[in-house]
Structure formats: C-alpha cells, structure tokens
Amino acid sequence: MSLAAYCVICCRRMGTSTPPPKSNTYWRDVSSLFITYEVLALKKSLTLDTQVVQKEKMKSYIYVHTVSLDKRENHDTFSTIDIEDHECAVWLLLRKSKSDDRAARLQAVQEMAETRHWHDYQYRIIAQACDLRTLIGLARSKDSDLRFFLCPPPLPSLKEESSVEEELRQLLASLPQTDLDECIQYFTSLALSESSQSLAAQKGGLWCFGGNGLPYAESFGEVPSATVEMFCLEALVKHSEISTHCDKIEANGGLQLLQRLYQLHKDCPKVQRNIMRILGNMALNEHLHSTIVRSGWVSILVEAIKSHHIMEASHAARTLANLDRETVQDKYQDGVYVLHPQYRTSQPIKADVLFIHGLMGAAFKTWRQQDNDQNLSEKVSEDETKYTTCWPKSWLARDCPALRIISVEYDTSLSDWRARCPMERKSIAFRSNELLRKLRAAGVGDRPMIWVSHSMGGLLVKKMLLEASKKPEMSTIINNTRGIIFYSVPHHGSHLAEYSVNIRYLLFPSLEVKELSKDSPALKTLQDDFLEFAKDRNFQVLSFVETLPTYIGSMIKLHVVPLESADLGIGDLIPVDVNHLNICKPKKKDAFLYQRTLQFIRDTLAKDLEN
Prior knowledge:
Elements: H1 3-16, H2 25-45, H3 50-60, H4 88-97, H5 102-114, H6 120-129, H7 132-139, H8 164-173, H9 182-203, H10 213-221, H11 225-239, H12 243-251, H13 254-264, H14 269-282, H15 289-294, H16 297-305, H17 310-323, E1 336-340, E2 351-356, H18 391-399, E3 403-408, H19 428-441, E4 449-454, H20 456-469, H21 475-480, E5 481-487, H22 503-506, H23 511-515, H24 521-534, E6 540-546, E7 550-552, E8 556-558, H25 563-566, E9 572-576, H26 592-604, H27 606-610
Parallel strand pairs: 2-3, 2-4, 4-5, 5-6, 6-9
Antiparallel strand pairs: 1-3, 7-8
Helix pairs in contact: 4-5, 8-9, 8-11, 8-13, 9-10, 9-11, 11-14, 13-14, 14-17, 16-17, 19-20, 20-24
C-alpha cells in the first residue's frame, strides 16, 4: 500500500466519526492541526521498499501447471488467480503456446518474441512456466528478449583434489573404446596419453625417475592445460557422432562439465566451437533434448547465436535447429552449417545454395571477403583473426532472402604427416559419399538447388552427383540440381602434387593432393563420367579460373589451377586476375566476382523463386 493511500484512509476514518458540535470551532482547528502534524510526521518516518512489494507480486503470479495438456479439459478459463487485466495476455499466450493446434503455438511464440512492453517479472513468468517447445521457439526467434531465458543452474562442485582437465579425461575414458573408427581411436588414445602425462607431471609423478627423466617430466609440466583439453574435446567430438556415446556423455555429467569448460574458456573461440560441435551432435538425439534444456544450455546458445562472430553464431544456430522439432524437420550433422536463415522466419524458403570448400578450406573462411595476400600454408587456417566476413551470409542472404544457404566443412591436408588424423586417408569417393549422406539428412534435394564449389570442392560436387544418380533414394538431388558454380576447379589435375621440393609441406603428399595430379586415373575417370552424365541434364554451369600464381609456403610460387585444367568442357569459363586463394573471395559487394555469381544464381533460379 502506498503512503498516499494510507493517509487517505486515515483521513476517511476520522471523517466518519461523529462530528464535533458546530460551536466548538476552536477544538476543530486544533484537531485539524493535529491530524496534519501526524501525517507529516508519518511521511518522514515511514519508508516502503517497493522492491519487496514487486517480489511478492512476482511470487503470487508464478503458477507452473504439472498436469499434462492431454489430460486437461478443453476450456479457456483460468483458475481463480488474482490477475490484473493487463497481465492476462501473458497467461493467454502461455496457454496458447501449449495448444494442440500447431499454427496457434507458432503464433503465440511469435507474439511473445515481438513483445516489447512487458515488465521484467512478466518475462520471468514465461521463462519459468513455458514448455521446452516454446523455449526453443523463443530461442530461435531473432528479436526475443534475453529475459525469456533463465540463467543456467549452479554447476556441481568438482571432486576433491580434481580439476576440469582430469574430469574431462575421466569422461573420455568412460566412453566405449572398442569397435571404433580408426580416427576416433587415434584421437582418444592421443588425448588420454597426453592428459595422463600432463597430470602426472603436475602432481610430481614423473620426478621420481631422476636423472634424464627430470627434463622429460618438466617438459610435460609446460604443456598448457588448454592444449590437453583440446585433445580431449577433439576426441569427444568424434565420439559424439555416435548416438550411444552421446547417452554415455550425458549420463556421466558431460553436459555440466562442458558448460564449465565453456565458461572457463570465454577467450578461446576454438575450445568453445568444439564444445558447440559436441552439443550440436548430441542435439541430433531427440531423447536428449529435455536434458540439454534442463542443464541450462539454451541461454548460452541464445547469447551465442546473437554474436557478431559468424562462426560462433553458426555453431549455436546448428544446435538450436537440431533442438527445434516444431519447425525444422531436417537434421544438421557435424560439418553442415546453415548460414541463412539462422532463425525462424516467415519468409518462404524456395531454393538451396550449397557451398563446398576445397583443399585446406573451411565452411566460413573460404568464403570471406578478400584480404591481404596470404600464403597457401596451414598456418593460414589457424589464424582466426582474419576470418571476420562471410559473403554468402552477409551479402547473398540479403540479396536473395528466399534461399537457404548451407556451407559444409570437412578436414583436408596437404601432407599426410601434417594431417589431423594420420589414419584418415580419405579419397574423393569416400568424402563424397559421406557428404552426400549428411546433406540428404539436412533435406538437401527437397528444393531446387545450386552448388558453389572451390578447388577440390568442385570434384566432390561432381562425384556426389554421380553417386546420387546411382541411388534411387538420392534421385531428388539430381532432379532438383539447377546449376553449378566452379571456382578454379582442377578438372584435369593440378601441378600442386608435383611440387614436393618444399619438405615442410609436400614431402609426403596427402591422398587428396595425389588425386589432384595430372596423371591421376581417378581424376580422368571422374571427368569422363561427369561429362557423360551432364550431357542429358538440364543444369547450368559457370566456371571461374585464376590467372595469377599463389605462394605455397615461403618458397614456391605456383599457378595452382591453369586455364586448361579449369575448363570443364561445358558452360562459361571466365578468367579473373586473382590467385587461387582469392578466386572465391570478392574484394567488395560490387566486385565482378560477386555480381556475376549473384546474376547466375538469380537467373538460374528465376522460375523457382517466382513461384
């Protein structure tokens, strides 16, 4: 009750008492003076904590119903709760969000997301009372207020004399170690051995060797814990691709441990991205959705998807899309990222554009704006400070909002001895089947589509189309392919594999590099088969080719894909005065490279985008 109201009540009560005799005007004046004095004195001495009142108000309006929607009676009345008129909308939207009518649920979430005039406690009502489906819907709504999302619950304490690194190692060791892919075995054994040695050094376990063992032990003590954690996370990424291993990760407290690690490494995007990859893989399993939500990950994902850093936002968008079974039927497996749309949208999506990078490329960095001259070395892929722009997301999405834009990522290497997994000797044929399976799971083939590829990525596109043509279940990919863009694709091979003089990079060329050699039988067969396949197909082809050489390492200057190798034999071939790295990186939006690409996409999909 406010002070003013209190004073009015006091005065009203005094006014209802028997009035004094009219003749006694003196005492009436004294009485008025006394009342005025009391009110003024009360005003000075009385203070009300309005925050307490507000908290009590919030408490009285938090009612979470545990009865199943299916068991409730079908009526629109509320229980007898003292709700002010302007607050009925909150509860009506909550009820609507749990309707059996999907359209009504979607509308309720949209209205919640667009609300701007609510008080803080009203957002908290929604946060505490909404179901999983509504929460994910709000998380995937672009303009949702962050107050819709509760902070993660407190994390459990670490075990006595334990560390995050040690618990991460124990989590990894608890996962099945038999009947695994060679690369999963490699990453797991590497992570467990490195972490064991690091922990032993930290605890002094190796000092007892003495003599020559002392510097050996000291060297392990110098290994940063973040490095060991990265080994463990890379192994967990591989394990999380197996559904039963995801169950083990969840059962052994992995969601909470990964959350602790995520918060500890806010200044290390690479660690956070690997954690997001694990979470995105776990989200492919619908029975784990409620556990992921209860562990508090949604508020973290919402902050990440709103980030200006494209990689961070895209990893979060993938996880949230996998959690959203209300509006998303597709599943985005590891390495498949939607650049647009990353939120729920009322814009009908009429076609897909797929970006496939090449040798040593990546889903984001390959398609950035052109920056300063760089060397084609593996140091480039580790320098994340320059990968701040992704033109398919920032330009193409605005120019063609009716497109779903997907970029894929896979590991490649110039040399076997620098490969992330030495046992991973994947041919173009193997990779194409792997990518084809992942893309089909993402719904690729359900709409008209255009492929955009750079370097070796173009060979993968050709192989994927050939493989899809042999499988009835993949026929929609063939039927809906409208066009292909090739950026410096070595259809007839490259000189790259022939230059092995730089011992650091090409002493042991990787299988990918060997397959790019001019005398590769696999490459010749692929070209011949694709031309035969394309002869009877009605899709458009546009090719670009570099005219400038590229530095490989610090010593070699090489024309990676010459004009004659980039000539597919069908479609237009356009030479551009850039090197192999920059052939797919326009300098700016009005540059020829981008504008010609945009024109091809619009022209090729013109009929589909009009419908």
